[in-house]
């Protein structure tokens, strides 16, 4: 295996026609290079998306009212309706599988002009009414002050929590905004906190560009009555979200005289199912990556095998002399196989190294970009040690495959006929 003369012989055989050897090796190089780059890119896409939703409650679902599509109890189809605050207590009393339930209301964001004033500055932001429990579903990092609490809800306090972008734009990222007053849609609210979202899931606008009010305050101040625009619910540990979702839907439909079979009247999103679909998508992308990468690699390996057949034919007389001088079949096979393995291994390892180097460069480029808080769906493109080891195993097997057919062809050469070859 470590016979220097044998390796010199292999080197001379491959260097005899350098252009041919390089073009043949490029096929293997490109195959393994593409396999590593595609695997790394697949992981980068997965990491970027997962990082953006990792802290979001996966055992949750969301509901909102829509037009009815079925007539029921004297009501015509197409009826407009709304959930109300009494639904919360009714759900908690009748669905023991519910862990948290949090209503959410939305104010109008004026597209034609500002809805927020501070001193001489104006801005247009999302306005949302929330309960304290909402951060247990979609968590926020409190940069200054605090989040909405139960006393804010009970006393209907005119306070607000602002997103990071609102703070930067209205207060120039300077000083302490706590205790200051913002005029939001004509009403003054005292700032009690500044938050930054920990996920990239946006519900009716980005959280960093939103102003959050106590839910009850928003209902009263903007004459919303008892209306609830949006409902966020989480299931207790070990309970499928689909079970809770179905029970809550049935209760709300019953309370608001909606046909049980009306699937349009109550819109919903099951986050648990969304995450399962996402996992299935990443699995399919990973499988496709390996299929395409290995297919490209095998094309290069077949090219190596074909070139080795040509080399064997060119060296027919040389092989015949070796056989006539007593070279064993094992010696001939070993020589051909080692030439094939050497060519594929060197080309493949180069492709593997360059693929990993490219992923590292891309990763460093992404990490050096300024953190703006914008959504980034590509993070940490990388390949695991398992993938690297698997790639090396594929290289060895590919070299063996590429050399097996030429080796068998060499064994079929008869010494007497080889010596007559011109």
Short synopsis of the structure:
It contains twelve helices and 14 strands.
How many structural domains in the coordinates?
Answer: 2
Q: How many H/I helices?
A: 12
Query: Would you tell me the overall average pLDDT?
Result: 82
The main β sheet shows up as: 12 strands, mixed
The end-to-end distance, rounded to whole angstroms, is: 32 Å
Structural class: alpha+beta
Low-confidence stretches: none
Strand content: 15-25%
Q: Tell me the Rg in angstroms.
A: 34 Å
What fraction, in percent, of the residue positions are helical? 40-55%
Write the H/E string, N to C. Answer: HHEEHEEEEEHEHEEEHEEHEHHHHH
Q: What overall geometry do the principal axes of the alpha carbons give?
A: elongated
* Number of strand segments: 14
Task: Describe the structure in your own words.
With 422 residues, this protein is α+β, with helices and mostly antiparallel strands. It is built from 12 helices and 14 strands. The protein has helices at 4-15, 18-53, 86-94, 150-155, 164-171, 215-221, 241-255, 271-314, 316-324, 329-367, 385-411, 415-420; strands at residues 60-65, 83-84, 98-106, 116-118, 121-123, 126-130, 140-145, 159-163, 181-184, 187-197, 210-214, 227-228, 230-235, 266-270. Strands 1, 3, 4, 5, 6, 7, 8, 9, 10, 11, 13 and 14 form a 12-stranded mixed β-sheet that branches. A hairpin with a 2-residue loop joins strand 4 (116-118) and strand 5. Helix 2 runs antiparallel to helix 11. The longest helix has 44 residues, at 271-314.
């Amino acid at each position: 295996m470590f016979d220097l003369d044998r390796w010199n012989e292999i080197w001379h055989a491959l260097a005899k026609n350098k252009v041919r050897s390089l073009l043949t090796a490029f096929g293997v190089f490109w195959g393994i290079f593409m396999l590593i780059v595609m695997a790394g890119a697949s992981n980068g896409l997965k990491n970027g998306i997962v990082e953006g939703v990792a802290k979001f409650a996966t055992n949750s679902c969301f509901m909102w009212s829509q037009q009815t599509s079925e007539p029921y109890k004297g009501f015509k189809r197409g009826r407009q309706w709304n959930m109300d605050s009494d639904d919360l207590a009714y759900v908690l009393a009748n669905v023991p599988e519910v862990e948290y339930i949090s209503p959410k209301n939305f104010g109008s964001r004026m597209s034609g002009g500002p809805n927020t004033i501070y001193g001489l500055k104006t801005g247009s932001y999302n306005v949302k009414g929330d309960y304290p429990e909402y951060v247990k579903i979609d968590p926020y990092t409190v940069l200054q002050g605090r989040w909405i609490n139960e006393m804010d809800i009970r006393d209907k306090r005119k306070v607000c929590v602002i997103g990071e972008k609102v703070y930067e734009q209205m207060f120039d990222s300077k000083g302490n905004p706590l205790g200051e007053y913002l005029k939001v849609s004509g009403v003054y609210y005292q700032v009690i906190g500044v938050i930054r979202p920990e996920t990239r899931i946006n519900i009716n606008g980005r959280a960093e560009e939103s102003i959050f009010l106590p839910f009850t305050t928003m209902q009263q101040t903007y004459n919303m009555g008892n209306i609830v625009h949006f409902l966020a619910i989480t299931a207790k540990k070990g309970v499928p979200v689909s079970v809770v979702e179905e029970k809550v839907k049935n209760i709300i439909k019953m309370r608001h005289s909606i046909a049980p079979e009306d699937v349009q009247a109550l819109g919903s999103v099951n986050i648990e199912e969304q995450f399962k679909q996402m996992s299935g998508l990443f699995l399919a992308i990973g499988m496709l990556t390996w299929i395409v990468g290995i297919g490209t690699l095998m094309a290069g390996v077949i090219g190596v095998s074909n070139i080795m057949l040509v080399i064997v034919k060119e060296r027919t007389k040389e092989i015949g002399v070796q056989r006539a001088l007593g070279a064993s079949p094992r010696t001939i096979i070993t020589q051909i196989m080692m030439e094939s393995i050497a060519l594929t291994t060197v080309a493949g390892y180069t492709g593997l190294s360059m693929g990993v180097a490219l992923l590292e460069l891309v990763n460093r480029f992404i990490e050096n970009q300024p953190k703006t808080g914008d959504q980034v769906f590509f993070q940490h493109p990388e390949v695991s040690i398992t993938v690297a080891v698997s790639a090396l195993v594929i290289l060895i097997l590919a070299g063996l495959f590429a050399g097996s057919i030429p080796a068998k062809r060499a064994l079929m050469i008869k010494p007497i006929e080889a010596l007559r070859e011109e």
